[in-house]
Amino acid sequence: MQNKTMRPVYWLFGLPFDAVTRDDALRSIALAIRERQRLFLSTPNLNFLIASQRKRAFQDSVLHSDLSIADGMPIVWLARLLGAPVPQRVAGSDLFEALMAGAAGPVKVYFFGGEPGVGERAAARLAALGGPVQCVGQHCPGFGTVEEMSSPERIAEINASGADFVVVALGAAKGQAWIEHNRAQLEAPVISHLGAVINFVAGSVSRAPAWMQRTGLEWLWRIKEEPKLLRRYADDGYALLRLLAGHALPAALAARKRGSGAVVPSTLEVGSGGHLNITLRGVLTPAQRGALMSRLAEALPTSTAVDVLIPSGTRVDASLLGALFVMRSEAERHGISLRVEADEAARRAFQLHLASVLLEQPALPDGPTLVPAAL
């Protein structure tokens, strides 16, 4: 079983991103299929990032993912601006093409969503290719609510197909919501909303040339192929300018003004009754983060609660916030309360990075509603 506390996550303006390559992501998919472990894969692009700032449920769906990859060059550019080592764009379409080329061995896929007739054409093409990816079922639910698309009969039919990978194509918000609503009942190890993949496989939409994908100009090609996307890209472009002016550039300038900062060891202490006390100090270097998260992995299974202290002078950046996100997620997974104490300067930095959600206590089974942790 993979050690989730060691996820190389970095926080970028409201969402976590795993600093992984395409090959890393493919290995995670192959491992999940081979060992029948759940992998909820999210592929946030700029549209995801903007939407998550407006819709908490949408943001939560990405926060609950097991792997969150940067599916867009604007995400990679924002990461570089903040010094987060996100190595490359990892498009969901690239992953699926690699699966079709045999990167993970035989894969049984179920397509849920898409325009009427597209699922049938995608299934027929995969059958004609005779490659390692086999379509074992598809369904176009048409219009309706998430609940209407989630009948017990439909979930049972998907499970009966024996799919390794459920590919959802309902539009980003509804697709993520459908996965959130049904992932506990779905038996396929890999689940992801890959909206354009079904169209690419069916041949109803062609992919942009590689040079346009590399340079961040794929959106122009997508508009040519699907003119209805023009409004979405225009809205996202305007929102990106506001994000740069109000958050990204000020955060980058603040980091440069602070310089490298003092390297002061962060600590993890186990108190009485299995109470963990974590203090994040100075700059959280990669080596410190690795050591801290390794100790956390050892201590969490026997812990009862976690307190995280962020004192004055601590550098709040994409790395620290990513580590805190992992701590929070793992505490929630173990059913343990986690409380964050941060001074006013740190809280302002959280707001600048759109990370105030990380100051909230994780929701526990039969526990209280999320509320900001008090100092």
UniProtKB/TrEMBL annotation:
Q: Report the transmembrane regions from the record.
A: none
In terms of domain of life, where is this protein from? Bacteria
Molecular function terms from GO:
hexosyltransferase activity
Q: Entry's InterPro entries?
A: WecG_TagA_CpsF
The alphabetized UniProt keywords are: Glycosyltransferase, Transferase
Q: Does the keyword Transferase apply?
A: yes
One Pfam assignment: Glyco_tran_WecG
UniProt keyword Iron, yes or no: no
Under PANTHER family, the record lists: PTHR34136, UDP-N-ACETYL-D-MANNOSAMINURONIC ACID TRANSFERASE
Tell me what this protein is called.
N-acetylglucosaminyldiphosphoundecaprenol N-acetyl-beta-D-mannosaminyltransferase
Give the organism the record lists: Azoarcus indigens
